[in-house]
Design a protein that fits this description.
The structure holds three protein chains of three kinds. By secondary structure, chain A is mainly alpha-helical. Helices cover 75% and strands 1% of the residues of chain A. Chain A has 13 helices and two strands, in the order H-H-H-H-H-E-H-H-H-H-E-H-H-H-H. Chain A has a two-stranded antiparallel ribbon with strand order 1-2. The longest helix of chain A is centred in the C-terminal third of the chain and has 27 residues. The relative contact order of chain A is 0.17. Chain B folds into two domains: 219 residues, Rossmann fold (3-Layer(aba) Sandwich); 125 residues, Response regulator (Rossmann fold). Helices cover 76% and strands 2% of the residues of chain C. In chain C, helix 9 crosses helix 11. Chain C starts with a helix and ends in an 11-residue tail after the last helix. Classes of the chains: A mainly alpha, B alpha/beta, C mainly alpha. The interface between A and B is medium-sized, with 19 and 23 residues.
């Protein structure tokens, strides 16, 4: 593979993400570690949604449900660990395992019903399930209802990791992001992944070749849910606070927007999108109170002029660079 | 001669130490500046600015910088903004907080992390009780208190059957708990509506008409207060079933409600016509500067700045002396708009509560006047759950 | 069972349903014909309310204000379509979502810049601001009756337009087979503009009628937008008849659920639990309904023919 500008830029992005806590500490601005930590978590969420949305064409408008499930597993667990002294309920490994199990179950149920529909009907039925989970959380008085739960401790990784240190939490998030990217890469290039991609472009053909399309899609749907559930566990630890708004439909919408902004169906697109989205929000809102007046049209222009989001722009840059270097080669010879 | 030199020297040392102490006082102020509730935050910001004007923009000789942040009415955003104030702007005080759920979400990012947290409005039960903290102060009230006073008023008026409506969030639940604690009659109906999403109360109002209670009590802060009163009148209930409220009618929606709110009764710790020297100046200057009556939100925010000023003054601007500042704030020795008051062990004010009525002032503007005192030096019921003593 | 209360709540449900229908009719047409997911449809609702509030202030009459607001909405919608949305018709649904989301942000901020962060009021004329007594001692707010009447009238006119006129024929044809209409040599761009303008007027009408009941404020269109999407999906995308039926069902279920659920739940569980669970469950009802309907009929109640 040649070192095109796109590859260089993406490599630079990932390297800088890895160095953020060091930079933040050296300029004594620990706030940036927190800010970028949040980007990493939403990146994981976006990478997981991209698995089904980008590669499989399943536009789930309820993906934040899993963020909610993961968050509430931590919230409820640490609540009992703190209030009732049930120590194992504060254990981070257990949080992750339970989040995986519950997300998988939720994904299985939601997927089994939703995947019978297509297009906008699929979008709306996944939204419907997300809203149900949202209102269940609103109704559970014991865990704060609408007001949510403040965490009095973070997940306890048995001395292996001290999450109360923001830098350790950052690198845990970073490790999970790299893992989810690796998984995403392996999955989409496997036979299974090829089949999922096939269903996006032509479902009928895949069916007639003999692929059990429904089952394949369901499995992908569940895997995406599980990864996002883990992001939820991280998110609760990051914000020290859990409330139903983590699974509000606007949050699901944010995830979709990050993917579209970064580049649908590309490996790093969701990460680029999440970072760009939150960074723009932070920078623009620092400039003016009316920052959405700039941000809104910016999104519109990106859609109109840059097909394939920011990653699409990078691809265009590569093409231009290639043409340029070929021309230069010819001239040189 | 010798004495003269010594005197000059000691003066110089004092001055130098003053200078080295004169670090800028940084205050974060988290409130809602956009959306339907943005008007409240705007009012609070105006009051903070007025307080700074009155202080000559200095606290104990130090410069003051206020960072205003918009929580957009969402707990998660408020939390994030608070985090930024503490970690990035490194403020010494974080004030503001209209909404109980935003305060609850943000609390852990401030207390125990260095700065003092001062609630200018929200007063949920937990922070007054079990979760009370030496770094947390309130310049408002505990949520239940105002409606407990209302319960007493309803008893005195001989109300037997009461219908309650409130939004379903931390403060709404506290307010309802307050009125049910003191009200002695029957509660014949109760609706907790989705907040802030629900703005149309047609279904609930139809129920009220069908139940036909002696009185209706509601808690709907901000823009929701405007809605419920408008719709109450549109449903033809205004002159049929007496309507009592807490934090629902304020100086922001009163000019928009006009006759619809006339004669309305509510309980509160403060009113624009409260006869205290500080309040007179506050209301007068506020009206002169902004051309409208201040809200209770504004009054509490004004007190927030004055409380901070009393702390900074007490330690001569040495912002590292947290113990000194805490001790000063506990004395509540600042000129408060509500007159003098004491702090309870949980850092919530022990104060009077009044019955207020909507009236027209001499210029034809709508405002509220004190009818009578319901509670004198009232302390909230959560104070006993607070382990702190001093 | 209290029959008067039930009747009154039915009227309330009907009134909510009417507002939803006005929004849904435009949204479902734009979706069905242009294949555009327009998240900014709620912003048109907001603009309708703001226009009406401003014009009411200028003219001192709600009726005049409303009559001026409608053409303003149409103009606004047409400009929006020509500048921003036209380029999106051929794009994927996701591109449309991102672009129209950007539009929402822009329009909200635009409104804040022009009208300020504090909401506006639309004062009603004296005769509409109280309640009237209907039959059997039912009292009902006069203005809400007007909403119902206007809504039914508009629904009827829309029916005439769609089923009896040439434009209506093209709209129907467009909703079921877009390629065919353009292949017939119809000026498709003009049709799109007409449909979008129509949708904008209907959304604006809903907004200006909701204004006097609720506040006119920034972001007022977003909460109702998502329910409107529920309505058009239950009804079947592109079907005005479906939108009408679904809007009334959703309005009814939502209102009656809010009103009676605590009592119904109280029969099965303790009152305390019923009190806290009822608001949550009643908010969930319409989503449960949608999931059920889509699980049985994956294309909604009235799927457009040919789709």
């Amino acid at each position: 593979m040649r070192n095109t500008p796109r590859i260089k830029i993406i490599t630079l992005l990932m390297l800088s993400l890895g160095a953020i806590p060091l930079i933040a500490d050296s300029i004594d601005e620990p706030f940036y570690t927190v800010l970028f930590s949040r980007m990493l978590i939403l990146s994981i969420g976006a990478v997981s949604l991209n698995l089904i949305l980008g590669f499989g064409g399943m536009v789930s408008f309820g993906h934040a449900v899993y963020l909610g499930i993961g968050s509430y597993v931590v919230g409820i667990g640490t609540f009992h660990a703190f209030e009732d002294g049930v120590e194992w309920m504060g254990n981070g490994f257990i949080h992750i395992l339970v989040a995986i199990a519950v997300s998988a179950l939720a994904g299985l149920i939601i997927g089994a019903i939703s995947l019978r529909t297509h297009g906008v009907y699929f979008i709306m039925i996944t939204l419907a399930f997300a809203q149900m989970f949202y209102f269940i959380a609103v109704g559970t008085e014991k865990y704060g209802g609408d007001d949510g739960l403040s965490l009095y401790m973070r997940s306890d990784f048995a001395g292996l990791l001290d999450l109360s240190n923001d830098n350790s939490l950052y690198y845990l998030n970073f490790a999970f992001l790299l893992t989810s990217l690796y998984l995403s890469h392996r999955l989409t290039n496997s036979r299974f992944g090829m089949a999922i991609r096939g269903t996006k472009s032509n479902e009928e053909r895949m069916k007639s070749i003999g692929f059990p399309v429904f089952r394949y899609r369901l499995v992908a749907f569940v895997i995406a849910g599980i990864i996002c559930g883990i992001a939820g566990v991280l998110s609760a630890n990051q914000t020290d606070f859990v409330n139903p708004s983590v699974m509000h439909w606007t949050r699901s919408g944010d995830l979709i927007i990050m993917i579209v902004l970064g580049g649908i169906g590309t490996l790093f697109g969701p990460v680029i999108g999440a970072v760009a989205f939150l960074l723009l929000e932070e920078l623009l809102s620092g400039i003016t109170e009316y920052w959405q007046l700039i941000f809104g049209p910016m999104l519109l222009l990106i859609v109109i002029f840059a097909r394939g989001g920011i990653d699409g722009m990078l691809v265009a840059l590569d093409r231009w660079w290639l043409r340029y270097s070929v021309k230069k080669n010819v001239e040189d010879n | 001669m010798k004495l003269g030199i010594l005197g000059t020297l000691s003066l110089a040392i004092m001055l130098i130490s003053q200078i080295s102490f004169a670090e800028t006082v940084k205050i974060g102020f988290v409130t809602t500046l956009t959306g339907g509730a943005g008007a409240i935050g705007n009012d609070m910001r105006d009051a903070v600015e007025l307080a700074l004007d009155h202080l000559g923009r200095k606290m104990g000789g130090s410069n003051v910088k206020v960072f205003y942040e918009d929580d957009t009415f969402k707990p998660a955003v408020g939390k994030q903004k608070t985090e930024k104030l503490v970690k990035k702007d490194k403020v010494h005080f974080v004030g503001g907080y209209i909404w109980s759920h935003v305060l609850m979400a943000s609390r852990n990012s401030v207390v125990g992390k260095g700065p003092f947290m001062i609630s200018s409005n929200a007063g949920p039960g937990p922070v007054a009780g079990k979760l009370c903290h030496e770094d947390f102060f309130s310049t408002s009230w505990q949520n239940d208190q105002t409606t407990m006073a209302m319960g007493e008023v309803l008893n005195q008026l001989g109300v037997k059957d009461l219908y309650i409506m409130a939004p379903n969030y931390a403060a709404g639940k506290g307010m309802v708990a307050g009125v049910t604690r003191t009200f002695k009659g029957n509660i014949v109906g109760k609706d907790m509506t989705k907040f802030p999403a629900q703005l149309d109360f047609s279904a609930e109002l139809a129920k009220i008409r069908s139940v036909n209670p002696d009185a209706v009590f509601v808690f709907y802060p901000g823009a929701h207060g405007l809605q419920i009163i408008k719709q109450y009148s549109q449903a033809g209930l205004q002159n049929k079933i007496p309507f009592y409220s807490a934090f629902t009618v304020d100086s922001l929606n009163l000019p928009r409600l006009k006759d619809l709110a006339a004669g309305g009764l509510m309980t509160q710790f403060w009113a624009p016509d409260l006869e205290t020297p500080v309040n007179k100046i506050f209301v007068q200057d506020y009206r002169k500067k902004y051309g409208r009556y201040p809200t209770f939100y504004a009054a509490q925010s004004y007190d927030t700045i004055m409380l901070i000023d009393s702390a900074v003054r007490a330690v001569n601007g040495n912002l590292n002396d947290k113990d000194g500042m805490r001790a000063a704030m506990r004395r509540a020795a600042f000129p408060s708009v509500r007159g003098s008051f004491k702090y309870g062990n949980n850092h919530f004010p022990i104060q009077n509560f009044y019955l207020r009525k909507v009236v027209k002032d001499t210029d034809g503007n709508y405002t509220t006047n004190v009818v009578k005192t319901v509670y004198t030096n009232h302390q909230d019921t959560y104070a006993k759950d607070c382990k702190m003593s001093w | 069972m209290n029959w008067i209360l039930l009747l009154e709540q039915t009227l309330n449900g009907f009134q909510l349903g009417i507002l939803l229908f006005l929004l849904a009719a435009g949204l479902t047409l734009i979706f069905g014909i242009m294949d555009l997911i327009n998240l900014a449809h709620g912003s048109l609702y907001m603009m309708g309310a703001y226009f009406a509030a401003t014009f009411t202030q200028w003219t001192d009459s709600f009726i005049l204000g409303a009559l001026l607001a409608l053409p303003a909405c149409m103009l606004f919608g047409i400009i929006l379509e020509k500048i921003a949305l036209r380029t999106l018709y051929t794009r994927s649904h996701l591109d449309q979502v991102l672009a129209t989301f950007g539009l929402i942000l822009f329009l909200n901020e635009f409104v804040r810049l022009i009208w300020g962060p504090i909401g506006l009021d639309i004062p009603l004329p004296q005769m509409l601001s109280g309640s009237v007594e209907l039959f059997f001692g039912i009292h009902y707010p006069a203005f809400r009756l007007v909403i119902i009447a206007v809504g039914i009238l508009v629904a009827f006119l829309l029916y005439l337009l769609v089923s009896k006129t040439k434009v209506g024929m093209l709209i129907r044809a467009g909703a079921s087979n877009r390629q065919m209409v353009s292949a017939l040599g119809i000026n498709i761009n003009l049709l799109y503009t007409v449909v979008f303008g129509l949708g904008a007027v209907l959304a604006g009408l809903a907004g200006l009628m909701a204004g006097p009941i609720m506040t006119v404020e920034i972001g007022m269109g977003e909460g109702i937008l998502i329910i409107t999407f529920v309505v058009i999906v239950i009804g079947g995308v592109g079907s005005i008849r479906g939108a009408f039926v679904a809007a009334l069902i959703v309005g009814f279920i939502d209102t009656v659920g809010r009103s009676f659920l605590p009592d119904i739940l109280g029969i099965f569980v303790s009152n305390d639990i019923a009190d806290t669970a009822a608001p949550a469950i009643s908010s969930m009802l319409i989503y449960i309904l949608m999931a059920l309907i889509l699980a049985i009929k994956p294309q909604g109640l009235f799927p457009p023919k040919g789709a």
